[in-house]
Amino acid sequence: MAAETRRVRARRLVAWIVDAEGSTRSLALIRIGAVLCLWACVGEQMHLRAAVGPERLLLSAVFYAASLALLFGLATPLAAALTAGVLLRLYVDAHLGGPARAFFAHHHQALLTAVFVLLAVAPAGRSLSLDRWRRLRREARGGPPAPPERGPLWPLRLLALQASAVYLWSAIDKLALDFLTGARLERIAMELYFGSDLPEHAAFGALAVVSAWCVLLLEIALGVGLWSSDARRWLIPAGIALHALLYLAVPVCVFSALMVLLYLAYADPAAVDRALVRLLPAPR
Fold first, then answer.
1. Which bin fits 127, alpha (ψ -120 to 50), beta or left (φ > 0)?
2. Which of 77, 156, 168, 206 has CA atoms 20 to 30 A from the CA of 217?
3. What's the rounded Cα separation, in Å, for the pair 91 and 109?
4. pLDDT digits 0-9 by tens, 84-135
């Protein structure tokens, strides 16, 4: 009986990961937001004036053309593949010690690359895109019917898994004495705000310790609990508050925006679809 229960659960898990389908509007929102995060993160480095040599010039031109098309959902599969290809080329260059190594100096830049690789294999252009608009126009003129705004959900599962990995590995990195005692947070405060003279009040040290433990426990809770629909209603506001504080206090703006954007990967696509239907005006 126990073995049969395990097999049933395993089949349900495989079906939830591989076979499940749903609305593609969550993917479309992630596509749009990810391009904006990408431009904020690497746009200046990929500017044409920074291009040295014909290869880098071509790379910059492809980067902006492909990412712009991806933002609006024009030829979305090709645009996503080209954008991901440029980022992978930068990734290889960085690990060979090339000029792109500054791009991968922080983990959120590698996270962006993973997001675009997954978007390249996802049906991210079936909703909120020029591709969708063109198919609807062809249908209105008597052409073939536009495909429904539905697709496999495994890319969303992988995007959520990537976000959970970021939280959990970040928590593992914080399982060190210098963080748990608040010393690492004090060093960050010295670097960004106070210089070499920390506030002498005893409450500041206590605040650093309490903050360190709160961040650690919240990251563990977010990495695990966002998979639960019951826990999400509490954890998503807590996660947004954490990233809003990080956005305002320390220079991790793109990381904060990207992690909040990836909360869409955990949400029920049908619920996101219903929310958009309520927000968007009905067609006349």
1. beta
2. 156
3. 9
4. 999 988 887 776 666 666 666 667 788 899 999 999 999 999 999 999 999 9
Q: What DSSP string runs through 97-121?
A: T-GGGGTTSSHHHHHHHHHHHHHHT
110: tokens are: 């590698």
Q: Which residues of the chain have pLDDT under 70?
A: 1-4, 6, 10, 13, 50-51, 95-106, 281-284
Q: SS3 helix, strand, coil % of the chain, rounded to 5? A: 75, 0, 25
DSSP letters, 49-100, are GG--SHHHHHHHHHHHHHHHHHHHTSSHHHHHHHHHHHHHHHHHHHHTT-GG
Angle at the Cα of 131 from the Cα atoms of 124 and 156, rounded to 5 degrees:
10
Are 115 and 258 within 8 A, CB to CB?
Answer: yes
DSSP letter (8 states) at residue 281: P
Cα 264 off chain centre by: 9
Q: Distance between CA 228 and CA 130 in Å, rounded?
A: 34
What are the tokens at 42?
């690497």
In sequence order, which residues have a C-beta less than 8 Å from that of residue 125 and are 6 or more positions away? 28, 31, 73, 76, 77, 80, 131, 132
The sign of the dihedral angle between the CA atoms of 158, 164, 167, 168 is negative
